[in-house]
Design goal:
2 domains, alpha/beta, 11 strands, eight-stranded parallel β-sheet, TIM Barrel, three-stranded antiparallel β-sheet
């Protein structure tokens, strides 16, 4: 039995680094019957400790935490410098300074050590994005009692994760919002949609699958369950909830009908977001340079959020973002479960006919 078997609603809240994920959001999803998550990405270990303690204080149900796996290698500094020069006029107009580009691993080892050696009541799952955790780290986390989930986008990644001893796989389709979870270099990333990926991966490995990618409704949840997933992971669906730390500009853009696009313009790594001027002007030339470009653009994006300028921020969102509702995450989660049950019953009735 896994933590998924204990959920009254088979919904996992996607960990959305950079602001939207909050302890309040995780706790609200828990109250609705799902599994809340804390996003460790970009946090210092000290800030992560605060977030986990706050979450533990707000909920008496299990919850999870997501770590970015340090992967890849430093980018060509000349390519990063050229992109910096290109962005300088935009930064001047915004009255902002660009950041110092640097290569790092998001303090992965320090954060993993924190999870092993500190105590956070209710913390039950550690998920990973951007690759496989080191063997020693995985062993230590498992010995500490955590389930380990790994984000995958292809059959090859799923097989590697299974061989590494994953307890569950987050299967991310190309329609998902935010960063692609591909291992290491994303230049040759998978273009599998969620439905295709679920079918192929279910045939290749015998592990619980959590489907992720533009799931916004109970019908969408029902679809991934019917395709073999044990649960669905949703992020964009919660962006407009009051418990999320979403910026006002992002909330407004999420409610609109603008299309999404895969872009490296904001972080140097492929991610899906709502089209805006930044992508239109720089997306074609942004280098594959993560996290250097993330650090370079972080102050400019912060200035954009403060000013409420949607053209200066990364509007991460899945393809069906317009369906997001401005209601509590608890209500969203409960409604997803109820509507999925209705959709499954209606589909079963059609099959009997």
């Amino acid at each position: 039995m896994t933590i998924l078997d204990r959920l009254s609603v088979p919904v996992v809240q996607a960990p959305m680094a950079g602001g939207p994920s909050t302890p309040e959001l995780a706790a609200a999803v828990n109250r609705g019957g799902g599994l809340g998550f804390v996003a460790a990405g970009y946090l210092t270990p000290e800030r992560l400790r605060e977030q986990l303690r706050r979450t533990a204080a707000l909920t008496d149900h299990p919850y999870g935490v997501n770590l970015f796996v340090g992967s890849g290698r430093p980018a060509d500094p000349e390519a990063v410098a050229a992109y910096e020069r290109r962005l300088e006029p935009t930064a001047r107009l915004a009255g902002a300074q660009l950041g110092e580009p640097r290569f790092d691993d998001d303090r992965f080892a320090d954060k993993a050590s924190l999870l092993v050696h500190d105590s956070f009541p209710g913390l039950s799952v550690v998920s990973f994005t951007f690759g496989l955790p080191p063997v020693d780290t995985a062993r230590a986390l498992r010995a500490a009692g955590f389930e380990l989930w790994i984000t995958v986008t292809s059959v090859d990644e799923a097989r590697a994760a299974a061989q590494a001893g994953a307890d569950g796989l987050i299967v991310q389709g190309v329609e998902a919002g935010g960063h692609r979870g591909v291992f290491a270099d994303d230049a040759g990333q998978s273009e599998l949609t969620l439905l295709s990926a679920l079918q192929l991966i279910a045939a290749a490995v015998a592990l619980p699958l959590i489907g992720a990618g533009a799931i916004m409704t109970g019908a969408g949840l029902a679809a991934v369950l019917a395709a073999g997933a044990a649960a669905a992971q949703l992020g964009t669906a919660y962006l407009r909830s009051p418990e999320a730390g979403t910026s006002d500009a992002q909330r407004d853009a999420t409610a609109g009908l603008a299309p999404t696009v895969l872009t490296r313009a904001f972080s140097g790594r492929t991610a899906r977001g709502i089209v805006n001027r930044w992508h239109a002007e720089h997306g074609d030339v942004a280098p594959a340079a993560y996290p250097e470009v993330h650090h370079l653009t972080s102050p400019l994006r912060a200035a954009g959020r403060a000013a409420g300028d949607p053209d200066l921020i990364n509007l991460w969102a899945g393809e069906a973002h317009a369906l997001a509702e401005p209601v509590s995450a608890e209500q969203i989660t409960r409604q997803l479960g109820a509507d999925a049950a209705t959709a499954i019953a209606a589909a079963a009735a059609r099959l009997r006919g």
